[in-house]
Design goal:
Layout lengths: L6 H10 L12 E2 L2 H10 L7 E5 L5 H7 L4 E6 L5 H7 L6 E5 L7 H9 L10 E6 L5 H10 L4 E9 H8 L9 H9 E9 L4 E2 L6 E8 L10 H13 L5 H6 L7 H10 L13 H17 L1
Parallel strand pairs: 2-3, 2-5, 3-4, 5-6
Antiparallel strand pairs: 1-8, 6-9, 7-9
Helix pairs in contact: 6-8, 9-12
Length: about 300
């Protein structure tokens, strides 16, 4: 377990290095060893695992990971944390801290450049673990998922409401475009809720740990993946409207009469709202749209 995961130790580290947290980087440092253990358990770590950690902060989770896996690559955007990380992690020879923006990082290339081993399809994959800053959670997850990096398992701590959106089912108030995207690429499972009091400084919201297990194949067959996600986005842009009215004003190129005919041909009631659509419903409609566009 991490030797750094306690409020008193974190306070001492911050004082020792005269470090002040920055809101622009969403810095809220975890100070609870029990939550660290839950993240570790959720990640199903093995001794030969390669792990990418995003936002190591003070190295609290990094230290716990390094005690259990072959190698940790910690991606940190704030260079002011460099002396703290060097001090806190100096005893470990299986941690590499890289100072770069995770939103711009090609994680497969990172692993390739550090290990000199190409991790292509069928090769050994790696795991991604993070206590994510709230402000970049959704764009960062979409960067990871859309680029189809060779990541087998993602375990992240995020704002509780975001975790609920990721795992929400059709018809629920939290269900939206993020739900569809996450569930298309992965099987999500909320591991635990995390109270705000276990962070320093204390954030304004509670968090949750969620495990995203990468799917070997998508849950639906698509003619065109990009078109599918454009359709999903259009449906949820006006989520309170019927699917017909939501798509009528989209930039997908059909008028209202064409949409009405296409939706009915797909076997869907045009009066339904997009928030009631399963991933299969969206796939059926996207495939019908693809056929219409390519035959007209």
């Amino acid at each position: 377990m991490s030797e750094l995961a306690s409020p008193s130790k974190v306070i001492n580290i911050l004082k020792q290095f005269n470090f002040h947290t920055r809101k622009k980087f969403g810095q809220n440092f975890l100070v609870d060893a029990n939550i660290i253990q839950k993240i570790i358990s959720a990640a199903e770590l093995k001794q030969d695992d390669l792990v990418v950690e995003i936002g190591p902060g003070l190295g609290v989770l990094t230290e716990a990971l390094a005690n259990r896996v072959k190698q940790v690559y910690a991606v940190e955007i704030d260079r002011d944390l460099e002396p703290i990380l060097e001090h806190n992690l100096k005893q470990y020879n299986n941690i590499k801290v890289l100072f770069e923006d995770a939103l711009k990082t090609d994680f497969d290339n990172l692993i390739l450049s550090e290990t000199n081993e190409e991790l292509g399809p069928g090769d050994k994959s790696y795991k991604l673990i993070a206590n994510l800053p709230y402000y970049i959670t959704t764009p960062l997850l979409m960067h990871i998922l859309e680029n189809k990096f060779n990541i087998e398992l993602i375990v992240v701590m995020v704002q509780k409401e975001v975790a609920e959106r990721m795992s929400a089912l059709p018809g629920k108030k939290d269900y939206g475009a993020l739900s569809v995207a996450v569930q298309y690429y992965t099987s999500p499972e909320i591991v635990c809720r995390v109270p705000r009091k276990v962070f320093m400084p204390v954030p304004e919201v509670d968090s949750a740990v969620i495990r995203l297990r990468k799917r070997k194949t998508p849950p639906v067959n698509l003619e065109n993946e990009l078109l599918f996600f454009r359709l999903v986005k259009a449906a949820f842009n006006k989520r309170r409207k019927t699917i017909l009215n939501a798509l009528e004003g989209s930039n997908l190129g059909l008028n209202k009469e064409e949409w009405d005919a296409l939706i009915k041909k797909t076997g869907i009631d045009p009066r339904r709202r997009g928030e009631t659509f399963s991933i299969q419903d969206f796939a059926n409609l996207a495939n019908s749209l693809w056929e219409f566009q390519n035959n007209s």
